Structure formats: structure tokens, C-alpha cells
Amino acid sequence: MRSLLALLIVAAGAHAQSLSPSLLNSTGVWPYQSFKSVDFHPPNMTISKSQRTAPGYLFFGEYPIGGSGVAEIAPLIMSDENELVWQGAPGYTSNLNVQTLDNEKVLTYWNGTFLNAGYGYGAVSVLDSTYTEKYHITLTDQNIVSADGSTYPSYCDLHESYVTNKGTILVTAYNVTQADLSSAGGPTDGWILVSNFYEIDIQTNDVLFHWSSLDHLSKIPLNQSNSPLNTTCGNLTAGTAQSCPWDYFHINSIEPFDDGYLISSRPYFSAYALSANGSVDWQLQGANGGDFTLGPGVNFSWQHDIRTFRTSPTSLILNMHNNANSVTDEHSSPTTGLSLHLNLSTRVASLISSLSDPNDPIYSPRQGSYQPLAANRALLGQGSIAVIQEFGSNGSIIYTAEFGNANVSSYRTYKYEWHAQPTTLPDVYAEMEVGTGNSSVAVYMSWNGATDYDAWSISAGNSSSALSHVRTVKRTGFETMACVAQAKYVSVTAMKGKKALSGAAATSVLS
């Protein structure tokens, strides 16, 4: 059984990811990898694998919540065999994803300020396959008020950054305002955290559409929220002050749906289909069905990452990460990856599959993702539990990777095949090899983010202007080490077969 340290307090009976204390160092930081050529420290994942997994790399961004736990906060691409492929600039990131824009694969992620209340303010970066930023999506001048009264250069929230086939991006945003909360048992002059989403033109950064949860109280009344009003922020009760607003709706995913949108509200246990003008067409509610009748096994709560796939004009498949837990409602049921069939004519929701590991159930109180893979497989990122799982076509667990302690999260995790070639030079470090009487030089080589090279060409010499090729070695992971004869300078070039893919990166040899 696995559970988050909710607000740094362990619930009775919970334990943090079944971790042995010996796995953590004296500062509580999860074991990490280190390199000579670059100052990167990705997690050293603990992996269990029973059969061949789906092709592709893992895309995630680890960060601590409420404490330590990671050696470095950064977006990561890693193989499922624990090999680093790319590490981005340090800082809080979310939703590291591969999407399609202008018929090309791009890398997208949110980066900004992560607030302890479970949302953030920042921007979305769109990188091409050379890791060059093509677009920097910001949200400004929207009269957004933050809980702490601070202003931010951009108000895009971390929960969603969905690129559409229209060249737009869907982003979430949170705004604090006063509202009458008496219908939900709160004060008449209360404070509320309003969920918003925006559709933004990627090229121009113009806002094309805006939706606010507070504009739809007739269909989404406050008293239907399962978000408790008795939670506190220090000595304040939720909903009683600007610095402690009631997060009643908590939007956490958006996608285009027909001519409108489909959104997920975590505390309403609901998916809402919206028309093009933002009005509510229907609600699928995980406890009472909403506008649907729920079949056996269809119940869900506190969910994330709702996605749909049309199977006909009157039916669709809906997938989600069914947390079934929250920081105030832990150990309700094990977290699952839920796949449902919705009949839009009869308004019946039926269970297709429910994925979990019966031998090691996870109780993830927040965050998470569900990604269908080829051959009827699926990937679950367990959000606030630092675990990634892959399930086979028969629903059995075939892969588990742990990458952090109880303080560590990754909002979502994806798996994709990805081909990239940076415009930057490789990184190289060279030193006299210890214990060899200074007769040889150890050369350490890496090329952050490059996926397709297979060898290194090494040149060396006693003058930086007169280097000669001395050997070619096979690539052996993110960083390759090779020894060459004594020299004062070396240079390295990444190769694919006999073709140079990079320029030559040179360095002097440290004695």
C-alpha cells in the first residue's frame, strides 16, 4: 500500500511507498545519478519489469512537495531502463509532453511558480526537436487576482497545456474573488478560488476564448462540490480570506470535444461536456452519474487527466486517472486507471477496464495521468506518489518504476517515441586517469537530448590547434567514458555510423 504524506502528516496505517530507509541519504534525498561531463542529477529509479514494455521514453518532471526529496528539480526524459536522455533547465515544471503542431512533433511544458495550494502561475514553452523554444505562451492582463496578492508575469496554470489541431493551446488559470458561499455552508462574504480556462492562439498569443466556473452556477452549484470548507491554511478556514480561498471546482484537464470542450473537475467527481459557447451540455458524475446511469464498477472520485476517444457519433471511450483519494479523504479505495464506454444516446456509462496492481495497491491523493499505449497497453503516472506503471494488454502490471520518496511528485507522466538532435555542442570532460602513472586520459562525453547517435569520434593532441583522431568508441548511455593516450587537449564529435551529427566539442585535460 502506498500513500502520500498528506501535508507532511502520515495518516494512520499509511506508509510512504514501501521504501527502506537505506534507500535515502541523510538529507532524505532519493538516490540520484551523477556525471562528469554535465552537472545533472536525475533520479536513480528503482525498476521492476516482467516483460518487454512499449517502445518510447518516459517524460516527467519531478519536484518535492512540502520538503526535500530530489537532488534537482527539472523536466526529464528518461528511458524505462533508467537512462537519462534529456534534462531541461532547473525549476518547477509540469506537463512535459510530446504534441503535434504544424504537422511536427514538439515538446511542451509548463514552468513557473508552484503554490502550496496546488496550482501555479507561469508560462508554457513549446520546443522543437532541437530543443529550441519556438513559442512562449503567456497569459497576462486577465484581471487575475492571486491568493497572496502578488502579481506574476504570466498566469497560465500548471494543470493543462493542450495543443489543438487548430494551432491553439488550452490552458487553465486560477483566480481569487469574493462570493456568497452560504449555499455550501460558508460565509456570505466568502472567498473562492475560481477555475478558468483559456484558448490561446499559439502564434499570436491572443486569447480566443475564456471560460469561468463561476459563470455556470445554475448547472454547477456550489453545494455539489465535495471540497471541504473546514480545511485550513494556517489559522484560517477555507473561504474566509483572500489568502485562504475555497478551491471548490479545481479544474485539472481540458480537451476539445465536438465543437466545444470537455473538462474535469476534481472535487465535483465530474467530466463536463461544454458547447462552443461554454454552456454545460452534460455531466458525468462519478458517484451519482449526473446525466448518466452508471454501470457496475464505474464509480470514480478526485480524478485527473480525463481524455476521450470517439468510437461513433453516439458513443465514446473515456479514460481517466481515478485517484479515488484526496488529502482530506485518503484510503477510500485504491487508485485506478479507469476506461469507460459512454453511450450518448441512452446516457449509460459502462466499465471497459480498471487498472491497478492488486499486490501493491496505490492510494494517490492528488495528481496523476492515464495514457493509452499501442497494443492495448496503458501507462499510469501516479502523481503525488512517485511511481510509474505500465500495464499489459491483459490488464496485468508489467513495469513499475519508483523515482522519489513520499515528498516527490510528477503531475503527469507520458511515454513516447522521440527523435531529437540539439543545436548545441556535446559536453566533454577529460582528466588524467588515476593510478596509471599519467599515461592515459579518461574522456567523458554526453550530448543532452540527442537520441540518434551511436558513437563518439575522439581527437587528441598537445596543441588545441593540432588535434588528430585517435579512436572511435560506441555510445554506452547518456555519458560515455573512454581512455586515450596522454594528451593536453581532446575533442569529441557525436557520430551515427560514419556521419558526424554534432560539431566538435573540445576541452583541456585536467591533471
How far apart the termini lie comes to 51 Å
Q: Could you tell me the mean pLDDT?
A: 92
The level of helicity is: under 10%
List how many beta strands DSSP finds. 40
| Main β-sheet description | 5 strands, antiparallel
Gyration radius, in Å: 25 Å
Secondary structure tally, helices: 0
Strand order, main sheet: write it out. 2-30-29-28-27
The coarse overall form would be elongated
Low-confidence stretches: 3-26
**SS class:** mainly beta
Beta-strand share of residues = over 45%
List keywords for this structure.
511 residues, disordered N terminus, mainly beta, 5-stranded antiparallel β-sheet
How would you characterize the overall build of this protein?
By secondary structure, this protein is mostly beta strands. The protein is 0% helix and 45% strand. It contains no helices and 40 strands. It has strands at 2-3, 46-49, 57-64, 74-78, 84-87, 93-101, 104-115, 119-127, 133-137, 161-163, 168-179, 190-201, 207-212, 232-233, 236-237, 251-257, 260-265, 270-274, 280-285, 289-290, 293-294, 304-312, 315-322, 336-343, 348-355, 362-363, 369-373, 377-381, 387-391, 397-402, 408-409, 414-416, 427-432, 440-446, 455-461, 468-474, 479-485, 489-496, 499-500, 505-508. The chain has a five-stranded antiparallel sheet with strand order 2-30-29-28-27, with no helix packed on it. Strands 3, 4, 5, 31 and 32 form a five-stranded antiparallel sheet that branches. A hairpin with a 5-residue loop joins strand 8 and strand 9. Residues 3-26 have low confidence and may be disordered.
